[in-house]
Amino acid sequence: MAATxxxxxxxxPMKVDGKDMRTIWVEADGKSxxxxxxxxxxxxxxxxxxxxxxxxxxxxxxxxxxGAPLIGVAAAYGVWLAMHAxxxxxxxxxAYAALFTARPTAINLKWALDEMNAAVRNQPRExxxxxxxxxxxxxxxQDITINQAIGRHGLKLIEDIAARKNGERVNVLTxxxxxxxxxxxxxxxxxxxxxxxxxxxxxxxxxDETRPRNQGASLTAWELGQHGVPHTxxxxxxxxxxxxHGLVDLVIVGADRVTAQGDVCNKIGTYLKALxxxxxxxxxxxxxxxxxxxxxxxxxxxxxxxxxxxASEVACMTGKTADGRVVSVQVVPxxxxxxxxxxxxxxxxxxxxxxxxxxxxxxxxxALAAAFPERVQTR
Length: 379
Ligand code: MRU
Known about the structure:
It contains 13 helices and 18 strands. It is of the alpha/beta class and 379 residues long. Helix 3 packs parallel to helix 5 and helix 3 (68-85) runs antiparallel to helix 6. The chain is globular and about 60 Å long.
């Protein structure tokens, strides 16, 4: 019975109010791209149409779409929109540059742009739009396939813990949103959780709220709820306490960039969870698709560019009032300085394992190179 349910689940993409849904799609007009505008979740479900490469750049910059894999796919479709309007070399170059600078930390953006550039640049102009669309669609489909594989490998980790606990519920702590909203479908950190849940394993998720933008509270909690996965939203500082009291079995987070030596860059606050997990002898796993690996970098702390975003994201919070209005309020005194670093780096030594599409591997240079030999580069 459990196996049948799991198989059904493989076929079905994530659902919103029971309806099949992805985060990004080609619209029926064949010339624009649809997205879920994630800025409005969880209070409103809004979709938006991207008609131009400028729309795609803005969508990435303003986090209408966000999450490393989805940023990459949105950029790929952005190149298609550019080629649809003007298939010249110059337009390709301008589109690449504009999309590349939309957000600095997630390497999936550059990976996808390089894939698109390679697919298109030596092709005759009249074929470029068709080829770009085909390649962007492939990148989107590949994201789903990769996430399903991550799910299968991560499922084993959850099942092993469930077996050790004699079927008692497995408590997973996650940070930010590395769920299906951060990808095309399934998510990375959430894929093993969805598979476990669908297979009948008792699994419960502690979702860090993830200030300042609250992707955990707004997005992870929403999508887990849509899938019926039991979850509890916790303030960011609660994880250590839960771990000390035996209330967390494992941590699974996503990644925006993983270096050749296995350092992990992810949403700000991830490092503190890794430290707390280490102090409490708990497994700390990072789920990532291979396009998140940057084989050109080694030392994550020294080399990964960390995005700094607007002060208003820290100074203000958005939420729903008792009478149902969505408003933004200021939570710091007028005139206080604020800092808004988007990401931090967890050194490889704190990572128990990397859950990739090719299995769970150690966070070190040798294991990464062995798992993805075709991606290894010499500097
Ligand atoms: O700033 P965001 O919302 O784009 O940050 C997202 C994250 O940090 C995710 O954990 C990461 O992109 C992995 S998504 C599978």
